[in-house]
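New to this. Explain these tokens.
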Amino acid sequence: MIDHISVGVSDLERAARFYEATLATLGLSRLVSRPATIGFGKTYPEFWINLRAGMMPVPHESGTHICLRAKTTGDVDAFHAAAVSAGGRSDGAPGIRPHDRVKYYAAFVIDPDGNRIEAVTFPSE
């Protein structure tokens, strides 16, 4: 349904370091570099960061977050650890999130600009 997504960042190089480390855990790498944008993906850019000079931090109350699919719970754990190590903040440690329809394993992080990013997988056990 969704072909690609993008988030605004106030410092492109800082964000590039954060997302290179974090997205690598999900198999995405930097595929496109331009003066004000960088695209990450597996075979084509699926996740973009775009420089927005003078951008204020994203308010936590915005309610917006982006969820990326992980293959395994280990990948979710690695995503969270890499994000925190690269300058992000935890917004929910890795773990099972039981819901009425489905059980899923997820972790939530906040990038240096306040963008909320989740990694999720659906364990079969």
